[in-house]
Amino acid sequence: MKRAYLKYIFSLLLFGTNGVVASYISLSSYEIVFFRTLIGSLMLVSIFIFSKREVSFKKYKKQTFFAILSGVAMGLSWMFVYEAYKQIGVSIASLVFYCGPIIVMIVSPILFKEKLTLPKILGFITVFCGVLLVNGRISHGGNIKFGLFCGAMAALMYSLMIIFNKQAKDIVGLEISTIQLVAGFVVVAVFIGFKQGFVIDVPASSWIPIFILGLVNTAIGCYLYFSSISDLPVQTVAVCGYLEPLSAVVFSVLILGEVMSLPQIIGAVLIICGAIFAECSDMIFAKNKKIIHVENK
Question: Residue by residue, what is the 3-state secondary structure of the chain?
Fold first, then answer.
């Protein structure tokens, strides 16, 4: 469990640098997602083949189907959120997109029999308030209705990605990461093919950040992400997932030199405190109950 936590947090930090890396790529959002999934898929497939790992997805056809659905949802989520960024700006799009974990937390007691405790709810509310402060700037440009629709669809696809992934418990590690990323690439490739074809003019200066985004952020990041969330409670994935937008803000300040306002700093603190409280409160309260029980005896 400890190893799964570390892998998950590191993957979120990698994903938090996506915006920084993408800022050096002179392509449209859909083209960036296309190259990201293409390179990441090729790397994971190559590693899987040369490692000569035992193939388990043939034994679990139903779970493989859910893993593919999770990858499809991931690809659609990335496309929707990048289009939302374009239409309504990163701030509002992020607010709508990160309603996805709320959907996951609401349905988790029904689908996964995970108890939705009051401390988790309070921690989650604190985290979401922090995200509101961190992403509090409003963009008035673009098609607002269509942008909000894309953001909402990205949130829905995100929640489906997590839910479907939890249904493939016996397909883990590199194998499930490969299946999901390849499925995501197929979805993006089909969309690109219908939208504009596969002739893409890539500036020479964009190739290095494209490979960093594809190999490091996507291939390694997705491997760490998908191989860890299957071992973590779904509510943990939902709450700690807010570390991704937090790290994105921090990296943009440190690397791109963007100014972080006082409300954003307060929001960052709320995100960290809310996530820690949601994760540790049940354990702390359980220990206190045991202590009280022992003292009563």
Answer: CHHHHHHHHHHHHHHHCHHHHHCCCCCCHHHHHHHHHHHHHHHHHHHHHHCCCCCCCCCCHHHHHHHHHHHHHHHHHHHHHHHHHHHHCHHHHHHHHCCHHHHHHHHHHHHCCCCCCHHHHHHHHHHHHHHHHHCCCCCCCCCHHHHHHHHHHHHHHHHHHHHHHHCCCCCCHHHHHHHHHHHHHHHHHHHHHHHCCCCCCCCHHHHHHHHHHHHHHHHHHHHHHHHHHCCCCHHHHHHHCCHHHHHHHHHHHHCCCCCCCHHHHHHHHHHHHHHHHHHHHHHHHHHHHHHHHHHHC
